[in-house]
Amino acid sequence: MTNKTTAAALLDRLVAELKTTGSIASTIPSGYTLTRAERMWVSLFDGHNEAITFGIIAFVVHQTAYYGRYLPYYICDYIPAMQRYKLQPDKQITDDQWWKCLRSLLSSQIFVQLPMMVFFLPAAKLVGFDCTAPFPALLRVFFQVCVFFVIEDFYHYWAHRLFHYGIIYKRIHKVHHEHTAPFGIVAEYAHPLETAVLGQGTIAGPLLFNIFIERVHITTMLIWIAARLWQTVEAHCGYDFPWSMSHWLPFWAGASHHDYHHMAFVDNFASTFRWWDRIFGTDRRYQAYEARRTGKAKAE
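Given the sequence above, the corresponding structure tokens read:
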């Protein structure tokens, strides 16, 4: 079979999956009794287009995790006692900047990300994702999500460094750097092409794990998306609280790590962990800056 024939066959399968209507009977192994959560899950697809249904579910999960994670930081912006934890207290976000960010986000989330979510389930089936009952054990989900974080972080480090190269930065990545003092929802404020390219890191982990290690359940993908959003909103929140993860998990990048990147426009390219920047020496200026910042804070 030629490459052209194989591609045509895959395209035909993808189109067929896009048209698939869900059926409870097809998702239950013979003799298996569904749990209450599993019954609720499969009922969402029964008699409905699976691709569209999953796309809507993924979109709801995304929006809930993204804006729900941002809400505490938004509230903190209006609490004077919390301003002592701001990383760049001298820079204030104007109403115009906030609304411009929100309008851009909603446009990107609806017209770029939502279509990608609709296509994800059919594509996931083609590469062997598990879309049937039973749900995976929580320990397995936790392990897989941890691996996904590591893979995404490695991809993000190098893709992010590429986006800081010359014309690529000027034409694409500069949009994200409009905010030198980031706030939570800035996490996804970016050029559509950047959204699509960096988003591949979120997909790559589950895809590679599914192909080379073991099958990934489609519900694990939703949990992973929520966890990744939880992390990236925190990284852009603009606050360094004493209870932040980076203070008790030393290799966690956290807000101070990424806030410096926005402030200085250089270094700290990783998304979640600190080790790649440490290994490749792209955090040296940050280390010096952070020593001065924390030293000043202790003195006060």
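Residues 145 and 223 are 8 Å apart (CA to CA). Try to locate this feature in the token string yourself.
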